[in-house]
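User: I'm writing a tutorial on reading structure tokens. Could you give me a worked example: one chain, its sequence, then its tokens, then a sentence or two explaining what the tokens reveal?
Assistant: Sure. Here is the example chain.
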Amino acid sequence: MLIEPKRTLIAYRCPKCADTIFGIAGKFALNADMLRLKCPCGESALEIKYTPDKKIRISVPCLFCGKSHSFVVSQSIFFERDIFMLNCPYTNMDICFIGEKEKIEEALGESEKRISEILSDIGLESIKNAQDDNGIRLPDSQIYDIVKFLITELEADGAIHCRCDGDGDYRVEIIDGNIRVRCEKCGAERTFSANSLEAAREFLNYDEIYLE
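And here are its predicted structure tokens:
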């Protein structure tokens, strides 16, 4: 009787071209050497190999921060789960999908929907528009939530000032890692630092802001 070797499907999104790359990882192949799943664009590769204690180490290029993240999982998780996802520790977004084809495609669809909602919320139309050399320019969710909450409160109190004399239409955008508040009617704007949670919390001290 032939014993079918353990194998699983694995997928990631290339941080350079944003395409989804699929590959098959088999137990026998891993025993032989490290597996490398390369994107056809030649700019990224996911790597899988055994650790000395026979767990599995996965190095995943990250679409969201431009770094590669290393994860160690057990063989049972890697080969036997219907679906298992690994996420970017900085943005908490899923970057690697392991398991059955149908489950991975379903998870990728949900991830795509979440990305689209975030990009739409910060004024970007697609993943391609959001990319730079450091991955997708997604803000830390806590930072963005703090800033958007404050802008909404200030707008309701009439405490955002621009050339529209109290009748502005304000939008919060992410520009090169900073947060820009812009009036869509008169074009007045102001950019605030958003490189840390502490910087975002400083927004809570504003009673009003002036756009130029």
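What the tokens reveal: The longest strand covers residues 7-13. Residues 1-5 have pLDDT under 50 and may be disordered.
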